[in-house]
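Entry for the shared binder. Reason: the reviewer on the internal report wants the predicted structure included alongside the sequence.
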Amino acid sequence: MTVFATSSLSAININSLENVSAGKLSATQIQEIKRAYNETGRSMDDFVSFAVSKGMSETEALQLKARILEDKSKTEKETKGDIAITRNQLAESVVEEMRENPEQANYINNRIFGSDLFSNARMSFAPNQNMPTPKNYIVGPGDVLVVDVYGYAENTMQLTVSSEGSVRIPNVGPVMVNGLTIEAVQTKIKKQLATIYSSISSGNTQVSVTIGNVKSISVYITGNVTRPGTYTLSSLSTVYNALYACSGPSSSGSMRNIKVVRGGKDIATIDLYTFLTSGNLSNNISLQDQDVIHVPAYDIRVSIDGPLKRPGVFEMKQGETLKDLLSYAGGFTENAYQNRITVQRTTEREKSVADVSSELYGMFPLQTGDQFIVSEVLDRYSNRVKIYGGVFRPGPYALDSGMTLKDLIKKADGLLEDAYLDRATITRLRDDLTPELISFNVKDLIDGKFNMLLKKEDEVTIGSMKDLEEKKTVAIYGQVLAPGTFPYYENMTVKDLIFFAKGFKEFAAIDKIELSRRVKDDSKLKENVEKNEIKMISVDRDLSAGGDGDIQLEPGDMISVRLKEGIESSRAMSILGEVRSPGDYVITNKKERVSDIMARAGGVTSYAYVQGAFMIRKGTRSAAERMRDAKLIQKIQETEGDPSLIKQLQSRTDLVGIDLDRILKRPGSEDDIFVEDGDMIYVPKQLQTITVNGKVQVPGMMVYKGHSARKAIRRSGGFGMHADKRHVYVAYANGEMQSTGHFWFMKNYPRVKPGSHLYVPEKEETSEDRRARANFLASALSTVISCASVGVSAFIVINNYIETKHAQAETPGDK
């Protein structure tokens, strides 16, 4: 239960709002109500329903919600430093919000039971045009009759009822059918056809009359409906079809006293609740031309809220009671307090509150405007105690009369074997609902030295030995099948831990296993720097008894099983591109070089561009290297289009420039580097293009024709603005790079090869450049100011001259 107090008024209970007036609450109280409501986890859309369920009238709840929203708006405005929103502005904003959100705007209307019946798109009440013609269907002008003669004589006729109400039958003449039922029309037409078909009288020929095309009828809908007016409907339409066409009763219209007027007389009274509560459509009568449907205003309307299956606003008839209202509301939910319902009623002078007990539900009369509130059962237990921890069956239990602490432990099937007996606790609520903690000794309870009576909501907690101990573990790593950390058990040995780790791997060094144990002696910890003791042990592979494997472990011990000396994990590399046997190759020894792997791959093909070969090696790259590799990958993707190659390149890390041409000519030289695990060598096919990018006029790709760097730049339109001509560099296909050389004032641009990427960087602005630009801007600005000064002076002279001429013109006698 959430209770809050204020300094100006008495404390307000958010779960009991029946006597709260929204207009009299202070700003502090509004903030406290908002805070307490937010703690319930509900949204503001549900506030009105919540407040009504707690005893507040619907009008007061709406006003209170407006004040909470106003306070929220003020807080937001003050946070932003704006002027606080006024109540009128808030009302305008709420109205605008309601216009944008129809559900919010029609909140009260939507609570009316059945209000959505005729606005539900899934329930159209459209007349069924395919059903058999009802026997009581009244025939009128515009109907098309289908007359089927069959038997000894065969004939089919379609006869349209004229405006005078008759049909013309060939060889018979006109027959008046207006106002007759379809059954009567069939009898009449059959009688007339018997004059020309003698077999009809003998029964050898039959006559069937049905409706082919139905006529249209006009129905007037008046009163408290959403869209009153005259509606043209199918002659098969019913009252529900007409009500759906006008969107049903309005918010003030009755749903239980709808009149159908025909010929100035009430022929039916429609109660929509019979359909809403039981699905009964027996009162859904068929309409005729010129019928009037009148929806009067409701007489009695009440609301009921709380833990009900269908809370809302209901229209009631004279003589119906609270029991009927509960039936319309679907009855109570499981957590409803069913013995009493509170009603707020408006009298001639003021409001009143009454409590209706359950035995009066069937006799309590209803009055329009009544607001019934159903409460929830209290969220507490009258006879519950709980026990947790070191018992066999922890949980809640019923508190019997005179039940003691020992009785509760017995109900829980006694103490666990590892129950902590030196101390346990009871958490108890005092009479003022403040909690207190009572400690006791479980041994004394067992020995009969201590016992106590329990109270409702007592919570007994008995600990266990394992809960009071630090978690103990041991670990094993290295050449075992399942390395990791395992729970420690008493008398656990080295062999036990190896067994938990699924045993040794094939190349485990079982004669050089390292056992690490923490130093726990305080004196040694103070004297020695070493905090762990290391012991080398040997264990049989089959974990047979005896030897170091029987050494008992201690909590925190760690075992390391290393690889046998000389054993190395398998290493491999790959060769891709224009080689005779591309693929993956195992590195057989540490001295294997690039030339050895190339020899095993059968050498390069006749299409290979050896000068463009490169190697990818795992390692750490700089940002510039990653950018370079990315460009290389992009180039290969554009020229080769091999997805598997691109994937391998993107998964690697470092690009190593190699001179494969020199390596193949001079195996074992310093260029012929040793290969390592994960290396990838790529030999491209003959490249025929180069790219020029950076500060050139038209960057892009061109066919290589023995270009020098200068010629390639000229073919790209020459240097662009701010080009740094002194630092042009070329990235070769094999990953190597070369920058521009300088000798005195001479620039020696790097050589361009097939597949090269030539880049012209942008010149960095120096301090001299900045000073020159500043001087130019100052000079230009001075020129503009000078021109402007001359213009202003000229304007002043011209203006003075014009004013002088005007003054002379205004002088008397001056022409």
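Summary line for the report: The chain is about 25% helix and 25% strand.
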